[in-house]
Amino acid sequence: MNLLYLSGFGVSLSVDRARLLVRDGIHDPDVEAERLEIQPRKARFDSVIIDGHSGNISLDAIKWLMRHGIPLFVLDYDGTLLSSTLPREPVNGPLKIAQIDAYRDRAKRFHIAKKLVEAKAQRTLDVMKWLAARYGELSSQVQADLTNE
């Protein structure tokens, strides 16, 4: 399973001349958001997960993903699923089998859950740093946590 994980402020998916244009969200005000340009039939991921706070997705981008058999999942701030957009055809058979195998393997299931929680925690810290840089007022405990990471 190879997914494209996007998070932060200003996530963007659009299409230009048949290429999918991807911009990850902003996590640090001093770091430029990562940008990708994906040619048709050359996507190196089999699903897209957006855990963004703001941004946009064009209808063309949704169509591009669906034509390439790539499901799109949008998560809420707490990690719950807000929306899923699935291709018309069944999701990739080997992918589905791998997902079921991962679910049945307790160690693998725990590993995946741990990685998701670690990524969410890191992104939360990134947002806190971003807010601190913009507004400068955080509790002393949060500031201590940010400096001790």
Write the layout of secondary structure elements.
Elements: E1 3-8, E2 11-16, E3 19-23, E4 35-38, E5 47-52, E6 55-57, H1 59-67, E7 72-75, E8 81-85, H2 93-104, H3 106-135, H4 140-147
Parallel strand pairs: 1-5, 2-6, 5-7
Antiparallel strand pairs: 2-3, 3-4, 7-8
Care to describe what's here?
The protein is α/β, with parallel strands linked by helices and 149 residues long. It has a single domain (3-147), classed as CRISPR-associated endonuclease Cas1, N-terminal domain (Ribosomal Protein L15, Chain: K, domain 2). 40% of the residues lie in helices and 26% in strands. The strands form 2 sheets. The chain has a 4-stranded mixed β-sheet. A hairpin with a 2-residue loop joins strand 2 (11-16) and strand 3 (19-23).
In the residues, how many domains can be counted? 1
Major sheet characteristics:
4 strands, mixed
Strand content: 25-35%
How widely separated are the two ends?
29 Å
- Number of separate strands: 8
Reading the helices and strands in chain order gives EEEEEEHEEHHH
Within CATH, the superfamily carries the name CRISPR-associated endonuclease Cas1, N-terminal domain
The helix-and-strand class reads: alpha/beta
Query: What's the total helix number?
Result: 4
